[in-house]
Amino acid sequence: MIKHVNHYFASITVATLLIGHTLSCSAQENAFHPGQLWPDDNGVHINAHGGGILYQKGKYYWFGEHKIEGGAGNRAMVGVHCYSSKDLYNWKDEGIALAVSPDTTNDIAKGCILERPKVIYNKKTKKYVMWFHLELRGKSYSAARAGLATADKVNGPYTFIRSYRPDAGFMPVYPAGTPDSDKVNCNHPKNKSEGFFCRDLPGGQMSRDMNLFVDDDGKAYHIFSAEENFTLDIAELNADYTGHTGKFTRVYAGHQTEAPAIFKRNGIYYLVGSGTTGWAPNPARWFSAPSIWGPWTYHCNPCQGDGAQITFGGQSTYVLPVAGKKDAFIFMADKWMPKNAIDGRYLWLPIEFKGDDIVIRWKDSWTLNDFKN
Ligand code: DGJ
Q1: Which among 114, 115, 135, 232 is the best mutation to test ligand 1's pocket, defined by most ligand atoms within 8 Å of the CB?
Q2: pLDDT for residue 20
């Protein structure tokens, strides 16, 4: 059985040996244990890193990067793994939703970098639409593309459609009242990030760490680290969710943000992100806005307590609204293990609201009953 160790820095010893192997039994889980091994219905540690969750017809579907052992696991050797759950504690293995290709000329060739996959459902087309950060095989992080795959069934198989850099030829939109002097003018880029923006204008903006968000009106948005990670772009997707409309805004330009996760509460848009220190943890940051188009206000680190300066060892990946519970949002983060990628852990923590401000605190163990409503 898994031993839950009461500290986020603690390392599991015996249990580590069981990653990727069937545990002797898979007892029903009834709490979250951030940072610990999390066995699926087969007793195998869940393999869905950099993930996101889609809620559909009473079930949650968790999609994430399937990682293998060792450093090779930092590249995509298998694809995107899917799990399902009714209660968020116990997860059924639904298999590989999107497989990498054996064809080395394919954009998603085995050995590419395929990160932070997210899936949304399009009611009009009845398609499940997956977007992810794609880096072409053997090209390190230089391609910086958005990848697209679609499926007729939630758990797949997903078919890869294309990959590209979004918003080629389009200038950003700005909140009303933004002075012209603050807007990008590619005749005179004012700083490094605008320089990257203008460099990439003809071919499309770089698209690395990413997330998706579907608003109450059904419009979907793609949020991604652009301009060598110096800016977050929030870009509108088309009605089918399969392409970019060219309408986008730049958030926190010039400051290097990764790992964006967006949610909405009481009409306010929230965005949580991280700094840019590779696989190593750093302080999180959050932003809020009255509209998806801004203005976005920067608010520093939402984490409090011991470990807050390194996001308790993790990096944001998604914020999950709990179905049917008011004001219940789960901050999902990855504790990366780059030397043995498959051993990456999941830090799920409840978001607390102080008025319209958010706070995230460490908990060794917690349940959905910890949410007030
Ligand atoms: C931090 C990103 O958030 C991860 O998704 C991954 O791209 C690593 N950097 C790679 O160093």
Answers
A1: 115
A2: 53
The rounded Å distance from CA 278 to ligand 1 centre is 5
The residue whose C-alpha atom lies closest to atom 1 belonging to ligand 1 is 278
What are the φ and ψ backbone dihedral angles of 33, each rounded to 5 degrees?
-130, 80
CA–CA dist 147, 131 (Å, integer): 5
CATH of domain 49-370: 2.115.10.20
Phi, psi of 342 (to 5 degrees): -65, -20
Domain ranges of the chain: 49-370
pTM for the model stands at 0.94
Token reading at 19: 């990653």
Pick from 319, 274, 262: nearest CA to 51: 319
List, for residues 317-371, the tens digit of each pLDDT value. Answer: 999 999 999 999 999 999 999 999 999 999 999 999 999 999 999 999 999 999 9
**Using an 8 Å Cβ cutoff, are 109 and 128 in contact?**
no
Q: Is the CB of 50 under 6 A from ligand 1?
A: yes
The pair of three-digit structure tokens given for residue 246, joined into one six-digit string:
């060219």
Which helix or strand (DSSP H or E) is residue 348 part of? strand 345-354
- Find the 206 Cα to ligand 1 centroid distance in Å: 14
Q: Does the C-beta of 209 come closer than 6 Å to ligand 1?
A: yes
Phi-psi domain of 259 (left: phi exceeds 0; alpha: psi -120 through 50; beta: other) = left
